[in-house]
Records
---
Amino acid sequence: MAMKPVLWLVAGAACLALAGCEKTAVEAPDAKNVCFHIGFPKDQPPKFNVIKKDVPSLEYCAAHLDALRIKFLSIGSPRKEIVGVYNGTFLWSTPRGIRISKHFEGPAMPFLTKAPDGRLVIPSAFEVPRDRNFSEPQTLPDNLPEKK
C-alpha cells in the first residue's frame, strides 16, 4: 500500500520533466499593420525582421513577402520558402504561392496562387482544364487587371 503514493510521485515527476522539454511555439508579434519576415538563426529563437510598416492588408504583406523571397533567390539563397507574419497571421511564401495560418505549427491554407505570368491571384482566378492535364500552360481570364 505504501508503493502507490511513490508511484504517483514518480509519474508526476515524469510528467513535469516531459512538460519542461516541450518546444515553445513561435509567437507572432502584436504590432498592427506591420509585415514581418521571420528569420531562424541557428541555436537562437526566431527573429522578426520588419519588411514594411503601415501595410493596409494581408494581401499587400503577402506580395511584399513574395518579393522578398524572389530577391533572396536572385542573390543565391538556396531557400525556396520563407515565412512571414502580419497581424498575428503567419504567411508562407513558396514558388507556388502564399499559404496562411493562425498558428506556426500545423496546417496552412492556400491564400494566393502564382498565375502563369508570376502574379499572385486568388486560387480560383485562372482556369484549370477539364482533363486535368497540367503539362499545358494555364490560361488567365480576360477580366484581370493589367500590370502597371
---
Amino acid sequence: QLALLQQLFLHGVIATPVASGQQQIVIGSEVADTVAQEGSRRLSGKFLHITDFHPDQFYKTHSSTEEGVACHSGDGPAGYYGAETSDCDTPSSLVNATFDWIAANVADDVDFVIWTGDSARHDSDESIPRSPGQVLGTNRWIADKFAETFGDPKDPTKMAVPVIPTFGNNDILPHNILLPGPNKWLGYYAEIWKRFIPEEQRHSFEFGGWFYTEVIPKKLAVFSLNTLYFFDRNAGVDDCQQPSEPGFKQMEWLRVQLEFLRERGMKAILMGHVPPARTDSKKNWDETCWQKYNLWMQQYRDVVVGSLYGHMNIDHFIVHDTKEIDINILGGFAVDDDVGREAFEDELEIQSAQDYLTELREGWAKLPAVNVKALEEEDTVESDAKGKKDKKKKKKKPGKDLGGKYAERYHLSLVGPSIVPNYFPTLRIVEYNISGLEDAAVWTDSFTDAVPALSLPSDDDPVHEELKREIDAAKKKKKGNKGKKGKKPTKPKDPNLVIPQPPPAGTGPGPAYAPQPLTFLGYTQYFANLTYLNNDMTHESKDASGNKWRDGIHKDKDPKSKKPKPRPFAFEVEYSTFTDKIYKLSDLTVRSYVKLANRIAKENAKKGKGKALTEDFEDDDEDEEEESLDEKKEGKKGKKGKKGGKKKKKKHNKVWLHFLKHAFIKTVPQKKLKKF
C-alpha cells in the first residue's frame, strides 16, 4: 500500500492539507466493522438508480411549451406534473411526488442510492438566465429531499441509507465547464453533500470532485466519478494524459483505489453523470480518458461489478471492446482530434438519439456471436480430451473471440433514463446477489458536521465573475491547442503511464462476468405516465417532434379544464428484466448483454451460425407487417397491368423494436419505431 500511496502523492492526487484538529485518514484504509444489532437494517440486495431531475422553480402549469418560453409563461398544455415529451424541465410538483412515492415504496427496501446528477434546470429561457444561486439552490433542495427520504427516523442528523451523488454538466455555471480543483464549485458541493461524502474523503472531493463510499463495509464500494473532467465538451480542461490535468489525477486515484480494493478482497461499482458513450462518429469523453478507462476496466475486471451513468435521458446500454485500447495513445503519442468523432450534442433529441442508437446497433452487428450452450460445454470437451494423443486439427474454441467463456474482452455501461419528462419520468431498482451476505455488516452513518456552512453566491457574486474570466482564458488555451498534432515523444512510452496489473493468476471471472455474490441479477424499471396523471388531454396525441426543441405531444392543444385536476401520483412498472420475455436476460452479466446485443443487431435470425445459435434467434423476427407495394411506390399506382395494392410481408427484428420502445420510455409509437 505504501508504494500506491507514494504514486498518488507524486501526482498531487491526495496531497491536499488536513485542517487543524482533524484526524488524517488514509484513503483506502479499512472502515471499522459494523456490529449488527437487533432491529437494525439488513441487506435487501437492491439499490435505487435515479438521475437527471432538472427541477425548474419557474415552471407554470398550463403554460406554453414553445421554444424560448419553456413552460414559464403563456397558455398551453404544460401539465401539473410536467410537460411529457417536451424539452421543458421538471416542476416542483413532480419532484415532491417522486420523493413521496420513493418514501412510501422504496426507501425501506434498498441498501443504497446512486444519484447521477443534473439537479438544476437548463438555460432554456433568455428572460430568466441561470445564476449560481439558482443552480446551487435547487441542488441543495434535492439533496435535502434525499436526506429527508433516506434519513434515520430516530436521528435526523444521520442517514439510514447511504446516498452517493455526483454532479452533472448542468450543475455548474457555465454549463459543461468545470475548471481544475480545488475551486469554489467543489467547495459548495462539499458543503451541500456533507451528509453523503464520508468524512475521510472530503479532502479528496474538494480537490477533484471524486470520492467513494463503502456501502457494504469491507465488501462493496461505490465510486462517484467526476465525469466532467473526462467530458469532451469541458473547455476548462484538456485530457487524461498530462499529469497536470485533473482527468489524469482522477484516473490515477481510481487506479490506486481499485488496487487497494483488490488487496482487501472488495468489489466496486462505478458511477458518474456523463457515460463513456463512443461510436464511429460521436463521443462523450476525451479520447485519452476513454482509452485509459477502457484499460482500467480490463485490468480490474475482477474488481468492478458494474458501471452506471445518466445524462443521455434514454434507456440503453453500451458494450465496450477492450480490443480498441490503443497503446500508442496511452503511451503518449499525439492524438489527432479530427479522427472523425465529434462530441455529442448537449441534449439528445429523438432524431439524434435515433442516429446514436442505430450506430450502436451497427457496432453490435460486429460482435462475436454468443453461443451459451457451446460455451458451457467447452470445459467438458476440454476435460474429455485430456490424455488423448489425437493429433487432429483442433476446433476453434467458441469463446476465443469473446475473450473467453465469460466474454471478458468486453465491459458494460448501463445508462439510466431520467426523471425530467423529456419522455416519461423514470427510475430503476437494481437487484444484486447477496448469497452469503445476508448477515453482513451494513453501512452506518458516521457523519460529523466538519464542513463549514457556505452561503450561496448572489447572482452578481464577484467570485462568479472571476470564474467566468478564468473559463474564457481556458477556452482560448484549449482552442489554441486543438489543431496541434505534435511530434512523437523521443521516448517510446509515457513515463507517467502506469499500466495496472491484470487479475492475479488463478482468479476466476469477477461478478460482472459470472454469477456470484454482488453480481447484478436484474432490474425493475418504473415510469410515471404523465398523460394519464396530468388528466388534461381528452384524445390521442400526435407523435413527439424530432426537431431541436420539442414542444411535446400536446402542443397546440388546450387543457380540458382551466383548473388542474391531476390524478393521484404513482410510478408503475414499465418492464422488469426478470420477466421480460423478449430481452430474455437471465442476469446482467457482460455475456448476457453481449448476447442481447447480438439479437438486437441481427437483420435476419437465420443468419446465425449453427443449430444452437439459430434457436437463440428464431423468435426475434416474428413481428411482421403487411406493406402495400402501391404505398411504397408513393403515387406510382397507375402502372400497366397492375391493379390494386399487392401486399408483401415485411419482417422486423422485434428485439430491436423492443429496445427502441424502452429507450424512449414508450413515448414513440411502434409505427414510427419501425421506420428507424
---
Amino acid sequence: MAKGLTGMRRWLTFEAVLASPLPRSYTNYVGRWLLAAADTTRQLIAFALITLGVLVTRWGAAPAVMRPLIAHHLTVAGLHLLPMTALIAAALGWAVVGQTVALLTRVGAQDYVGTVMVLAVVRELGPLATALVVLMRAGVPTVIQLGMARANGEVEALEALGIDPVHLLVVPRVIGMTVAVVALSAYLILGAVAAGFLFAFLQDVPLTPGEYGRQIAAALTWPDFLLLGLKSASFGMVIALASCFQGLARPLELREVARVTTTAVVAAVLGCVALDAAFILVYLVL
C-alpha cells in the first residue's frame, strides 16, 4: 500500500512537471520572435510574387471594374491626405530649418541651410513620414476591410464565383497606395522646403529665395530624384502588401481582426525602416 502511494505521488509530480509551462529565457524569446519574423517575411515575399504575377498576367483585364477601383483607392490614400500632408510638411520644414538655423548661425554657416534640407527632408524624413501617414490612413482600414471580408466568408464567395480575390482586392490597393506615396512624398517635400524658407524669413536669416533655391539645387543630384522615386514606391508597395497579406492571406475569425491589424502595422513599419536603411547604404555608395 505504501509503495503504491509513493508511486502515485511520483506519477502526480511527474505529470505536474510535464503540464507546467517551460521556463522562458530572453534568448529563447528573441529566437522564437526571429523565427516567426523570418517565416512571416517568407510568406509576405510569396504573397508579393503572387500579386506581381496576377498584375502582369491580368494587366488590362476587366478595365470597367479595375479602373474605378484604382481611382477610388488612389483618392482614399492620396487626395484625402493632402490637407494632413500639408500640415506635416509645414511642421517638418519649420522644425528642420529651426534647428538648422539655430546651429549654423552660431558658426556662420547659413550657406548650408539648403543642403541640410536636402539631406534631412528629401532623402530621409519626407518619404518616411509620407509612408507612415498613408499606413495609418489607408493601410489600417485595408486590413480591417479585408479581414472582415475574410471572416465573413466573402472571399470564399468570390472564389466560388470564379473571381480572383487577388486581382479584385489586392492589385487596386497596391497600385493606389504606391502611386499615392510617390505623389504625396513630392508634395510633402515641396511643402517642407517652402515652410523652411518661410521660417528662415521670419527669423531674419540673411537668405534670399534665390540663394535658398541655389543651395538646394546644388545639393540635389540626379540619383537623388531616382532614389526618391524608388524609395517612395517601395514604401507604398510594402505598406499595401503587408496590409493585404495580413487581412486576406489567412483564414480569420472576427475576434482576430484587431490582432492582425496590429501585426500589419508593425510589419509595415519594420519593412519601411529596413528599406530606408538599405537606401542609406545606396546613398553612401553613390
---
Amino acid sequence: MTDEDKHTSRRDVLELTGVGIGAAIGISMTGTVAARVPCTGCDGGGGGGSGSGSPPPTPQTGPYTVDNGEVELTGWAYGTDVEAWFEWGPEGDGFPYDTELRLIDDNASFTGHPVGEESGITYEYRAVAYNDYGRTEGATRTFSF
C-alpha cells in the first residue's frame, strides 16, 4: 500500500470527527425532509401541509360548428394556469377520445377539433378543465353532421 492510498481528505476527517464527537457525548440528531408534490386526489389539499387551492371552476361546454366537414367544439374555461380540452365519443359509449390540449392563462374561450368522426353518427362531448388540484367537467352536449 502506498502513502497515496492512505490519503484522507479534509471532508473525510470532518465527517468522521463529527460522528465521533456526537457519539462520545451522546448527542442524537434527527432531521426532516419536505417535498411539494401536487396531489390531484386530495380535494384541494395540495401536496400536504397547509396547501391551498382547488380544482378549476366548472367549464362551460359550448356549441359546435361544422365547416367543410370539420367539426369545431367551443367552450369556456375559468381561472389561471388551467389546461382545457374536450372529451368526446359516440353517444352512449362514454368519452374515449380527447381533443388537443389548450392552456388557459385567464378566463377564456377555447376550441377543440375531434379527429376521426363520421357523418351520420351522433357524438357526445364535454369540456374539461384541469389544474394542479384536480379536474372539472362541463355539461354533456351532442353533435352530428
